Amino acid sequence: MLDSRRVPHVSVTRGGGNTVEITLSHRRTDGWDIVDVHGDVDLATAPALRDQLDDLLTKGSRRILINLEGVSFMDSSGLNAIVAAMRGAREVDGEIAVVCTNETILKILAITGIDRLLTVHPTVERALTS
Amino acid sequence: MLEVPARSEHLGTARAFAAAVARHYDVDAEVVDDLKIAISEACVDALAETEPLRVRAEDLGRSLRFEVVSPRREGGSGDDRPALDELGAPARLELTRALFDDAALETADGERVVRFTVPLP
Fold first, then answer.
1. Residue B33's domain is classified under what CATH number?
2. A20 φ, ψ to 5°?
């Protein structure tokens, strides 16, 4: 049974009216906590993703699927958040996986070798049935 | 040239500037995506300075040269680097170099410059 809970839209507005936005939503399906990420994941917004993943691990989640299909840009700050979550999950015998078909994100996962450390699925459905 | 305050919320502006320049020269979309990453990576280590960081683009004829310029910190220990920094500055430069193989970091005359070129179609 689907239990969809939506995390409030996270946006940060700083001086000068500059707004950086990332949207994070969380749902739980088939034993997985799925974090759907939309927007740009960079140094300004990656902490929000990190906080969401840490919060899930703290609350007992042991299987987290990070859905990057809605991500329009991600740099090493986003990779950092994922790597940090992977380390946290490992400490509690948990599992982190990613859904991603964005060629540029897949490229930087490969360049950094992170794609060898976690499972990358093409769709949420494939991740849930694997 | 673009000059923005050295704060993380301006990274998107730096990326958008570089992408707009590249698109003006009909650079392939995939290369533009790589460029945005390279600019973002180059800007990260320039953040938290009091002086603005600058992104420069120069038409070299067959390529575009991009530079991210920031003041060079004397005696920097790296303690001011972003809290989320599992990969670290050397890895960021290597990531940039993997995208644009002539990427280089130079420090001279009180400035820190990350420089790379994007081939034009």
1. 3.30.565.10
2. -110, 140
B18-55, pLDDT tens digit by residue? 999 999 999 999 999 999 999 999 998 777 566 788 99
A79 has a chain B CB within 8 A of its CB = yes
**Dihedral sign, Cα of residue A84, residue B91, residue A97, residue A7:** positive
Chain B residue with the nearest C-alpha to that of A21: B9
Nearest Cα neighbor of A67 from A91, A88, A41, A93 is A41
List chain A residues with CB under 8 Å of B47: 43
- Cβ within 8 Å, pair B87-A14: no
Min Cα–Cα distance to chain A from B40, Å: 7
Q: Which domain holds residue B78?
A: 2-119
- Supply the pTM of this predicted model: 0.86
